[in-house]
Each structure stands twice: as C-alpha cells, then as structure tokens.
Amino acid sequence: MTEPVLEIKNLNVDYGLGDQSVHAIRDVSLTLHRGEVLGLAGESGSGKSTLAYGMTRLLPPPGVITGGQVIYTPESGDPYDVLQLTDRQLRGFRWSETAIVFQGAMNSLNPVHKISTQLTDVLRAHEPKMSESSRNARAREMLKLVGIAADRMDAYPHQLSGGMRQRVMIGMALILQPQVVIMDEPTTALDVVMQRQILGQLIELRERLGFSVIFITHDLSLLVEFSNRIAIMYGGRIVEEAPASALYRDSLHPYSQGLLGSFPALRGPRRELTGIPGSPPDLKGMPSGCSFHPRCPKAFDPCATEIPVLTAHGDRSAACWLVER
C-alpha cells in the first residue's frame, strides 16, 4: 500500500461567490494508496461529504472548487488531474475509475425500474459493445458477489430490504471494477448487525478485487475496526491523520480524543463516555486561530490567535499547537 492511486493536494471548496461565500474545505491534502481503506471521520458539518463531491466534481450549486488538484493514477498510463478533465473525459472517469456509494444510498435506486435494468444501464452506458446476455451475466455475477441471489434480478427496490438495497448499490458501484470506491456514510440507516455484515463483505470484496476505499462516516468506532488509516476533519480541515490502530491507541489531537471518548471501548474495562461539549463551528463565522479551541479542554495561548499547520510526526500528522509544544 505504498503506491498512491488518488492524491488530493491543497483542495479548497466554497459555497457561493464573493464576500458572502462560505469556505467549506480549506487546503485539504490527502493521499489514498492502492488497495487501502482510508477512513474520513468528523461530526456533521465538518466537510466530509463536500470533500467527496469536490474530488469527483459532483458538487451541487452553489459549490465551487476554488483551488487545488486531485491527481488520479490509473493502473496503466500517466497520472492526471481530475479537476482538469473535460465533460466527456469526466463521464468516462466516473464509475469506470471512481465510483460513489452515496449517503442515503438505500433511496438512490429508481423505484419504477427493476434491479436488473439499473445494473445493466451502467454497463450499457460505459461498455456499449457488450452484448445483452453478457450484461445480464455480469449483473448476476455482481449480485452474487454482494450476497444477493440471482433470482432477485427482476425485483423492484421496494421488494428488497434496506440491507439488500444497500448491497445492490455497492454491486452497482463495483460493476465496472473501478480502482477507487468512495462510500459516503453508506450504513447510517441500517441496524448495527447489518452494518457489520455489509462492511465485512466490503472488506472481503476489496481483498478479492483490489480496489481502494475512502470510507466517510461520523462513527469513528467503525473506522477503527475496518480502516487502514484514518483522517479526522474539523471545520473543513484535516486535523489529524494516522494509522487506525495508532489513532485508537494514542491519538494526538484533542478533537480526535473527544471523538474516541464518545463511544464505548471495544475491549477492556468499562469507561465513562466523555463526548465533546459545545457544537461544531459555523462556517460563516469561524473562530480565529485553531477552529477547535472554543471547545478544546487543553487550549492555551496560541490556540486562539494562530492557525496550526498539519505537521508530520513519524507515521502520523496533526494540526495542534499542543503537539508542537
């Protein structure tokens, strides 16, 4: 997992234009390595979904990318900047190179079309020379991979359970064998048992097919269990990035520590849940200095006036004056 497949460099995303614009993503840099599961965690409003839609150029208006690069490295060929692709090139890039399982994916299926139609439509659009029988065979193969019997091909979405609809969406995302799969809180509406089943199956598919995953969620306990590395977002910035085991064992940033203190320990004795006081910052009126300092129990002098820079510390990085001191 040393070869990069997707590199986000100093990405900036605004909502709106001029003096009234809101800076939703601020100088975010991340690297996804081939075959890796990169977790992206943070409270609602921290910029996780905006980052996903920005890197794939799916931002709805009035979202605007104001700076940065998104460098994609295919298995064969030279790296290129996704933000510089033409509309035609972008249509070829989506689904075949990078696919997204959207937040609320259970409701993303068209209710008036059969599952078979929705799966084969992806193949019809991207591989028009493929025969109808080959498309149907590929669709049945993908359903089998995600644990759904082939006889459900002719079912409508309302005839499937929530977990099955979620599996169909994952199968649709993988049907063209993309190198990068972005999952934006794909299990939020599912019960805990179904969450574990789907994520366990996703990891098994990753090991079999070799794709990379960006897994976005507010549930840090899921990322600790299923990710190789985790990046923590707050106020539109990355505040810490580390291997999953290192972050769980010894996080550096007080915000990461607060997130870890918000769910029960996976092992060991019971401990009191602490949580994080206050609310995430309003992006229209960000506090000066470190955006987390009004809620931080360890804040000291420079936190209120100077913005900390994401700095490497061994195999991890953090943006915190306490760590620098």
From TrEMBL:
Residues 8-260 form the ABC transporter domain. This is Dipeptide/oligopeptide/nickel ABC transporter ATP-binding protein. It holds the Pfam family oligo_HPY. The lineage of its organism: Bacteria, Bacillati, Actinomycetota, Actinomycetes, Micromonosporales. Keywords: ATP-binding, Nucleotide-binding, Transport. SMART domains: AAA (SM00382). Signal peptide: none annotated. One of its GO terms (molecular function) is ATP binding. InterPro entries: AAA+_ATPase, ABC_transporter-like_ATP-bd, ABC_transporter-like_CS, Oligopep_ABC_C, P-loop_NTPase. It comes from Actinoplanes couchii. It comes from the Bacteria.
